[in-house]
Amino acid sequence: MKRALILFTVISQFLFSSDLEKELQTQFILAEPGDTIYIPEGTHSIKGTLSIEGKNNLVIKGFGMDRSILSFNNQDEGAQGISITNSQNIILEDFAVKDSKGDAIKAQYVDRIVFRGVTAEWTGGPDPNNGAYGLYPVQCTNVLIEFSVAIGASDAGIYVGQSKNIVVRNSKAYHNVAGIEIENSINAEVYDNHAYENTGGILVFDLPDLVLKKGENVHIYRNLVEKNNIANFAPPGNIVGKVLPGTGVMVLAAHNVHIYENVIRNNKSVGTGIVSYFITEEAMTDSLYNPYTSDIHVYNNFYERPAGFPTLDFEIGQLLAIKYGRNTPDIIYDGMQDPDVMSGLCIQNNGRADFTNLDIEHNFEKWYSPFISNFSEDASKHSCPSPHLATSIPD
Amino acid sequence: MNSFSRKAISALLLISFLFGANPLKYAKPKLSDYGFFIGNMADHNPRDGVIPYDVSAQLFSDYALKSRFIVLPKGQKLDYQTDGSFDFPMGTTLIKTFYYPADFRIPDKDIRIMETRLLIHTPEGWLGFPYVWNEAQTEAVLEIAGERMDASFIDNDGESVNLSYSVPNFNQCKGCHVNQNRMIPIGPKVRLLNHDFDYSDGKMNQLKKWSALDMINGLPEIASLPHTPNYGNPNDGSLDDRARAWIDINCAHCHMKGAPGETSGLFLNIEETDPTRLGILKPPVAAGRGSGDRLHTIVPGKPDESIMIYRMESTDPGVMMPELGRKLVHKEGVALVREWIKNMR
């Protein structure tokens, strides 16, 4: 049976390309464990979401991210380009999804999902009308994203949400609002990536009202995070719309995050920001939600930025400009220490990186009078007794 | 689609039928193979044991009208569950046919049947199979990958409406009917059945009828059971009841605990009471441009500042809700939910 299917698949790719959408969808429905489904070379127009549901051990394979392209430019149905749900051990390899109306590739309730050499792109450049997420595993376990590319997402290019055991590596994200984002997730390794020319390069967020309440054990290391200076083009109402253009790495209300051995350069507003949910000024009704950051470690990073003003069309950018002129600090903390947790923020050995604690609890009223507000540039309060070394990384 | 490609897909389906590949081994290739109806199949005259029913609150499907039937295996019954659902015996089949009259002002005339969906309770759980009707209206064949069909009708206001009608594929069936990775029926629940139906031998409460036909085990006194209003009938329940009924049947299959929309933290099932989970002053999580530049799902008193209304009013696939099964705006539904939000404090 399997042989017949594969034979059929191969033959059909030679002979018929006129309705690839229906053919692929049929194959996705009928696939048996162990099958490989090929996306032929060429640019194929697809009008509805392609869905994979309830499958085990499936490989979806193209002939290269530049050669096998699914274009959703004329999509009239379904929000996603590809949707994968309730499955195990799915490998996506060597193809591109372009211009989907909503998210490019969404995987939900999948155990063991691999994105390898996959591109998610909106080809018209940064635009609020682009879909929200490029590569988008949510509520998944054992996620690997590697050698992949995300371009133009109006929220996050590579976004892993409410998931466990995650590796994002050797990938590129540019022209997104957020390049790479890890949200409400546990055990994430984000390394050897290049996040550039986004609004914010790499984000680690914990948001309220979600099913998976609190992330932890997130390691961001050996990434090149540079020139994340493009205007924030997220549609208003989205939390990522609050990200200050010119942000390298941002930690929002997250717990147990390690940021080390990254090169974070030429991000004009803030190299690394560590802020609580209070900074969003959104109401909080989720009694189980913890809005503070805690157990955050920033060490052994290289920071560099040429003198220049931060983004001035955001209030916090104006504040920083008034206070620091053309020399905004590399590492910025909002000073909101979780009263129930001992360990807040640990900073050490980041070369000549400078620091400020905005202490928003005490300075909040004085945001418009920053000359008299009490920021603390003293990072020594945040040095930790023992150096944190890079933990060994499972490959 | 060219005929070559169609042949290719047919060949693939044939291979699957012959070799019994999942999920097709539980389905028959043609609707007539099941023998649900006697005489001209398009007339839907049910054979004995094929019981028609309807639900008080309906999922909007581009204004298509629907006929529903339930078939239980011989001698077997539904088990009433205390949460108001039923436990269905293995082999239960739910039949739902979607059709348009040429003119909604004369709804019984010039009917075109688009599709019939079967939900079959198999040893592998519930499975959904879409059958697409031919032009001659004599047969419907299984289209596992779904289908697009041009449809047109004249609506109640005399306006001509054209749309590309979409038959869901096998996976999309599950996309709506899934909870905790198990596929479940949505319509046949006590609260949606607890009203009169016009049977060939006269009107009767559906639960009473099913009891009389000895189809249910353990049903409590009917008077004690809940009823979800027909949201289209202003005399059936309060504004709040009707709006919640619309939202429940149109949104909650995804927006409830265990269902795909739970990632948003927005829970719209009729049982939900927490204001934030219902969307009141709740910021979006992953809406993207679906937010329409609005800040909260529901802003009490302000439908035009509420994301919920924006997404209900859109037909852009990247914005609209529900994500599937809709090309048109449900004007009456939007009006109802608008009114509800406007009156909310």
Summary tags:
heterodimer, A: 395 residues, mainly beta, 28-stranded parallel β-sheet, 10% helix, disordered C terminus, B: 345 residues, alpha+beta, six-stranded antiparallel β-sheet, three-stranded mixed β-sheet, 17 strands, 20% helix, globular
The proportion of strand residues of chain B reads 15-25%
Helix content of chain A: under 10%
Oligomeric form: heterodimer
Total number of distinct structural domains of chain B: 2
Counting DSSP H or I runs of 4 or more residues, the number of helices of chain B is 7
Q: What is the tally of beta strands of chain A?
A: 28
Largest sheet properties of chain B: 6 strands, antiparallel
Through-space gap between termini of chain B = 53 Å
Rg value of chain B: 21 Å
Q: Uncertain segments of chain B of ≥5 residues (pLDDT<50)? A: none
State the low-pLDDT regions of chain A, or none: 1-17, 387-395
Structure overview:
The complex is a heterodimer of chains A (395) and B (345). With 395 residues, chain A is mainly β. Chain A has helices at 2-15, 20-30, 315-324, 360-363, and strands at 36-38, 42-45, 48-53, 56-61, 68-71, 77-98, 105-121, 133-138, 141-146, 149-151, 156-161, 164-169, 172-174, 178-183, 186-191, 194-196, 200-205, 216-221, 224-226, 247-252, 255-260, 263-265, 270-275, 294-299, 302-304, 331-333, 345-348, 355-357. Chain A has a 28-stranded parallel beta sheet that branches. The longest helix of chain A is centred in the first third of the chain and has 14 residues, at 2-15. The two termini of chain A are 36 Å apart. Chain B has 345 residues and is an alpha+beta fold. In chain B, the strands form six sheets. Chain B has a six-stranded antiparallel beta sheet, with helices on one face. Chain B has a three-stranded mixed beta sheet with strand order 6-5-17, with no helix packed on it. Chain B has a two-stranded antiparallel ribbon with strand order 1-2. The mean pLDDT of chain B is 91. The chains are: A mainly beta (395), B alpha+beta (345).
